């Protein structure tokens, strides 16, 4: 028995399309990267689930992790757990100030703010106060566009060994989807190259007896690195997560082009 009055399937469909935080076919991996990179504790979004056309996933950021909850759309509304709600907004309003209990970990999560599907760019521009020219003798033919590759980074991090769990200082470089680490800055050949396209998560880690620790999760192994400062660790995490989200977007665009013939 529904705890609210029935709603028609047509009304439910209209509501879903107008919901500003419905992210359509956003994958679980991309949702985690998005909420961890740009969201805050309690940020949430709704996305399609692979379990069926009437199944959805509510992805919620819980501090430094993301939890996923099953939501099912029925003729009578949206079913979550033991209750049904005639509209999705009723669902969110009902739980806005009540914790959700994660069945596996027992973590208490409060829905605080929806993460919008479309984020507007702020209209902030600087005013021109000085406009003059320096006589250099150059022409338009001398103007050559030059910039470093987008999303590159390098620097020293302390890395944990695979077998012997000791920590060693290594020089890291990030370019495209390759994270390489070297014995030192002067070394020409990397000790190892990590393909970030196989990485499933990047986040702060608190399991090691060290501060400013980062972990990268790969299918065969989880890598642990430590930065000198919290700011530096945050910079590495942000750019690595951006890489993961970027890869998901590129793959989605490639699939759309492939299926559009």
Automatic annotation (TrEMBL):
Q: What is its main location?
A: cytoplasm
Indicate where this protein resides in the cell. Answer: Cytoplasm; Membrane
> What is the purpose of this protein?
May act as a B-cell-associated adapter that regulates B-cell antigen receptor (BCR)-signaling downstream of PI3K.
Name the SUPFAM superfamilies on file.
Answer: PH domain-like, SH2 domain
This chain's protein is named Dual adapter for phosphotyrosine and 3-phosphotyrosine and 3-phosphoinositide
Query: InterPro entries this protein is in?
Result: DAPP1_SH2 (IPR035843), PH-like_dom_sf (IPR011993), PH_domain (IPR001849), PI-Interact_SigTrans_Reg (IPR051707), SH2 (IPR000980), SH2_dom_sf (IPR036860)
> What residues does the PH domain cover?
150-245
According to the record, the segments passing through the membrane are: none
Membrane-protein topology = Peripheral membrane protein
Please report the stretch or stretches of sequence annotated as the SH2 domain. Answer: 21-115
Q: From what superkingdom does this record's organism come? A: Eukaryota
Concerning SMART domains, the annotation shows: PH (SM00233), SH2 (SM00252)
Q: Which GO terms describe its cellular component?
A: cytoplasm; membrane
């Amino acid at each position: 028995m529904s705890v609210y009055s029935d709603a028609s399937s047509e009304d439910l469909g209209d509501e879903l399309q107008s919901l500003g935080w419905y992210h359509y076919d956003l994958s679980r991996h991309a949702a985690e990267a998005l909420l961890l990179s740009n969201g805050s504790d309690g940020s949430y979004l709704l996305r399609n689930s692979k379990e069926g056309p009437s199944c959805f996933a509510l992805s919620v950021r819980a501090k430094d992790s993301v939890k996923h909850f099953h939501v099912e759309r029925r003729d009578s509304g949206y079913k979550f757990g033991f209750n049904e709600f005639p509209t999705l907004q009723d669902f969110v309003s009902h739980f806005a100030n009540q914790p959700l209990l994660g069945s596996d970990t027992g973590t208490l999560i409060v829905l605080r703010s929806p993460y919008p599907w479309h984020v507007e760019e702020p209209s902030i521009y600087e005013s021109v106060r000085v406009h003059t020219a320096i006589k250099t003798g150059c022409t338009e033919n001398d103007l050559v566009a030059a910039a470093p590759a987008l999303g590159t980074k390098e620097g020293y991090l302390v890395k944990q060994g695979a077998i012997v769990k000791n920590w060693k200082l290594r020089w890291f470089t990030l370019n495209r989807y390759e994270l390489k680490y070297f014995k030192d800055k002067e070394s020409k050949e990397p000790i190892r190259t990590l393909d970030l396209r196989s990485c499933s998560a990047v986040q702060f880690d608190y399991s090691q007896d060290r501060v400013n620790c980062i972990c990268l999760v790969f299918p065969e192994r989880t890598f642990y690195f430590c930065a000198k400062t919290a700011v530096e660790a945050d910079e590495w995490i942000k750019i690595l997560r951006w890489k993961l989200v970027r890869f998901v977007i590129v793959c989605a665009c490639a699939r759309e082009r492939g299926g559009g013939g």
